[in-house]
Amino acid sequence: MTTVKATMAGTVWKVLVTEGQHVTAGEDVVILESMKMEIPIAAETDGIVKKVLVAEGDFINVDDNLVEVE
Amino acid sequence: MFQKILIANRGEIARRIIRTCQTLGIETVTIYSEADADSLHVQEATESYCVGPAPVAKSYLQMDDIIAIAKKSGAEAVHPGYGLLSENAHFAQAVVDAGLVFIGPHADVIAAMGSKVEARKRMEQAGIPIVPGVNEALADAEEAVAVAARFGYPVMLKASAGGGGIGMQLVHDEQTLREAFDSNQKRATNFFGDGTMFIEKFIENPHHIEVQIIADASGQVVPLFERECSVQRRNQKVIEEAPSPFISAHTREKMLDAAVKAAASIGYTNAGTIEFLVDSEQQFYFLEMNTRLQVEHPVTEEITGLDLVEWQLRIAAGEKLAFTREQVTRNGHAIEVRIYAENPVTFFPSPGTITALSLPQGEGVRHEIAVQAGSVMTPFYDPMLAKMIVTGADRYDACEKLLVALANYKVEGIQTNIPMLLHIAAHEQFKNGHTTTKFVEQYYTPTLT
């Protein structure tokens, strides 16, 4: 299992995946908003989304876990 | 003149406004979010009030709360600064309805210029050249494709309510346009609550040159020369200067004339900026009007010797302009650089704590800054942490000063765009004044690989 982490602090603007969904490496799973810019966060590996750990509007810090992929 | 005003903003612009107020003996009321409680704009104001938690929607955009604070504190007028509520016509009207003075133009003028489609119509009627394009909202992607075919690719797809480069995309072909229409419309709806889209013909390698005007309630409009703002990244300005090294004296006079005519045609009052695109043949086209003080206003102040915030306050208080177009002179050359908390390669933001800060000092070096060592650049606000303005006897002198000053500007703890600014300032094409809006992608980005 791999965990997609936030590359910087910000607010979760969009969650693009749902639990059970198949994702491929490089596919954006969450979009953060930081300093008025959208920051797409991509999955690093292929797999099934096991758990979405954040909701839209949540404030997150750098390295916080966002999505678990299995 | 007012005795007390409320400043509905944060950061360096709030401090900038406080400074002029102090000079004029005006008391200041500032507002702050919980994240800004320790900010300099809070400490330096006569009084300051918390308006809510960090996100702007819950604090700096809370119109009713801000107006209530203004009333309670006894402020007579509201200065909106730039960004946030500064171009919100509802706010301007609500301020007036509460019996206060809005330091800016009338709400209906803000509304008309805030819609880019409406602004294009009004300017065309006034006889100002506009970028070829449509002056009506596009119904859907299909209509966009049909319109683009008429003008020929590439085209600029734009959100009518857009700003800061959001909802805007350069499109080279039909398929991209179909995709871009929906994604940009969505973003515009999310950011501005208005998904109205339109299309302009793409002007090749233009210069972005804007004219500062100031107008009083009697209808007198005075142009304060132009600013060249072509060096941009992500459609946002990075370096601005005055005067423009590109336009001829003849073009300058024509642009100043057009700006005066544009402002007069809509009954503009207070400080405003008319943005133009200027092509390689020095043909200029109206792009949009900013109905507020601009981030880059200091370069105009440096070459004219005028305090624009002072004149905003005087005009809002009912005073007439004390100078005519002929009486305003300019001296020297000023260049402003925006210091952003961002990765200088990807331009992605770099929030964090500033651990050390050292600013270059010297004659002709001006700082507009609201952070100090220990300040946190939070993800909630704009990445601009400071502006530095250098002024020289001429452009060559200003460019030399800029290089030295940038080399001595130290920010630690976060990434900044200073390496990028240094690279650009040292570039031959910049030194020669060859600064089109393609500058960054032509001369900076290729050096990174």
From TrEMBL, chain A:
InterPro entries: Biotin_Carboxyl_Carrier/Decarb, Biotin_lipoyl, Single_hybrid_motif. It comes from the Bacteria. The keyword Signal does not apply. Gene3D superfamilies: 2.40.50.100. Transmembrane segments: none annotated. Pfam families: Biotin_lipoyl (PF00364). Residues 1-70 form the Lipoyl-binding domain. Keywords: Biotin. CDD domains: biotinyl_domain (cd06850). PANTHER family: OXALOACETATE DECARBOXYLASE ALPHA CHAIN (PTHR45266:SF3). This is Acetyl-CoA carboxylase biotin carboxyl carrier protein subunit. The lineage of its organism: Bacteria, Bacillati, Bacillota, Bacilli, Bacillales.
Automatic annotation (TrEMBL), chain B:
Pfam families: Biotin_carb_C, Biotin_carb_N, CPSase_L_D2. The keyword Lipid metabolism applies. It catalyses: N(6)-biotinyl-L-lysyl-[protein] + hydrogencarbonate + ATP = N(6)-carboxybiotinyl-L-lysyl-[protein] + ADP + phosphate + H(+). Residues 1-445 form the Biotin carboxylation domain. One of its GO terms (biological process) is fatty acid biosynthetic process. The keyword Ligase applies. SMART domains: Biotin_carb_C (SM00878). GO terms for molecular function: ATP binding; biotin carboxylase activity; metal ion binding. Keywords: ATP-binding, Biotin, Fatty acid biosynthesis, Fatty acid metabolism, Ligase, Lipid biosynthesis, Lipid metabolism, Nucleotide-binding. Pathway: Lipid metabolism; malonyl-CoA biosynthesis; malonyl-CoA from acetyl-CoA: step 1/1. Residues 120-317 form the ATP-grasp domain. It comes from the Bacteria. Its EC number is 6.3.4.14. PANTHER family: CARBOXYLASE:PYRUVATE/ACETYL-COA/PROPIONYL-COA CARBOXYLASE, METHYLCROTONOYL-COA CARBOXYLASE SUBUNIT ALPHA, MITOCHONDRIAL-RELATED. NCBIfam families: PRK08591.1. This protein is a component of the acetyl coenzyme A carboxylase complex; first, biotin carboxylase catalyzes the carboxylation of the carrier protein and then the transcarboxylase transfers the carboxyl group to form malonyl-CoA. Acetyl-CoA carboxylase is a heterohexamer of biotin carboxyl carrier protein, biotin carboxylase and the two subunits of carboxyl transferase in a 2:2 complex. This is biotin carboxylase. It comes from Caryophanon tenue. The lineage of its organism: Bacteria, Bacillati, Bacillota, Bacilli, Bacillales.
